[in-house]
Each structure stands twice: as C-alpha cells, then as structure tokens.
Amino acid sequence: MTRPSVPVPTRDELRKHLCEARIAGDVATPRDNNLRSYRRVVTGDEYAGFGLDLDPDWTFAQVLEVMADRCGVSPDDRITSGPDTIDPDRTLDALDDAAEVIARAAADRARVLVATGHPAGLLPVHLAVAAALKAAGCTLLTPAAGWRYEEWRRHGEEYREIRYIADVAMVSNRGELCHTHSAYPMRAMLDDLERAGEAPPDLVVADHGWAGAAGLAGATVVGFADSNDPALFLGAEEGKVAVVVPLDDNVAPHLYEPMTAYLLDKSGL
C-alpha cells in the first residue's frame, strides 16, 4: 500500500471534500441511532464501551455534551430524529492533532499496532498509515495472528480470528473480513506481546474496541470514531485516548483518500 494517489488538499479543500463525501457535515448516521448509542454507553453496555472501562457516573446529558463538543452533533436533546452532523472543523483539528502524534512516532521509530473494525470503510486509511510508518523506520507489530474467539451476532455466536493484511489487524470469519466493535482481539494482541516478553506498543492507530482496549492498557492511541460511537470520545475526556478523529467511518473507501493524504502530509510522511 502506497500513499494515496490524490493530491494533498489544503484545509479548505479538505473541508469541502469531507462535507461532499459526507465523511463530516450532514452524515448518514441518524439522530435516533446516535442517541440510542449514548444511552447504551451510559448503561455500561460492554459492546458500546469499546473495552475502556469508563467512569460509571457518566450521565446521558454529559455524554451528549461531550459529543456536541468533540464531534459536533446537536446538543439539543429535544431533537430525537432526522439527520445529525459531524463538524468538519472538529475533524480537521483532530487530524492535525493525530498528525503530531504520528510524526512523533515516526521520529522515534516507534513500535506500532494498527487495526480496524471497519474493513469495508476505513481499511485504506489504516493501510496507508501503517505503510508510511514502516517506511519511516517504525516497527509494525503483528501479535496474536490467527487467535480465535466467539463474537455475538443477532443470529448467534460466530467465530472470529485475527488476520493481518499489510500489517493491519482485522477480524475474519475465514471467508470474509468482518466489522466488529469488540475489544477482545486487542486484548489478545497485548497479552501475546506480554507473554513473549515484549514491551507494549508505543502507538496504536485504530478504531472501535481495538482503540478502546489499547487506551485502557495505557498505550498512546490515535482513534477514528463515528457520531454513534461515544466511547472513544469519553475515553479522550478521561485521558485514556490521545486523539479521536470524528468522521463517518463507513463511506466508500476511496472517499477517504484526500483525508489520508492530508494526514500523512501533516505527519511529514
């Protein structure tokens, strides 16, 4: 995987693209879905918590306030249906912050884990970041390859296993790469490193439970999260996640190319 083939956009050009592609601005995630997710994380729902072991005293009103501040959704709890928004300037600011963290990792030739629970959308972003960090002299870690677990689905339990593509971890049912919020795979990867006598990663670039479990373990985490994924934003509030980039995490993969080019350019990679 090489750098995105598109030109590096300016901030204004990227803002326009983010809104046109619905990565930010008026996104596809509906308001009722967002609010339902905020209520789930408040109840301590494990799947919604992304493995972060969040403060149990969070209230729905506080979660909505955090999401309005960090993501740009409407702060008005009387709005319960229709579209919702992600503020593109918050996305851009978070990309700038993420670039600083990634640049430091590159300069330090850090040990890095990269993983995604959204292979149908965000995979090209992760592949490009992993390849750029590797080219900069970082060590890309690939622990626990093939590790298996059972994940609950609406029709019952299904086996998942960790698979790597070009140093990016995902889960697979052996026939397909799968969407997941689970924190179990990242926990298994960190445990595998510990059993091998290796140090924890210096940086984790990830989403969903991959990012949450790494943050709880004390890793420096750059995460990507949608407006219906409050856990990582709450993790940032609690100091467990370094940077969270708000975006729609499941648009067509090629639409992320300008954003990825911007992120890598800002990182000096």
From TrEMBL:
It holds the Pfam family Phosphatase. This is Phosphatase. It comes from Sporichthya brevicatena.
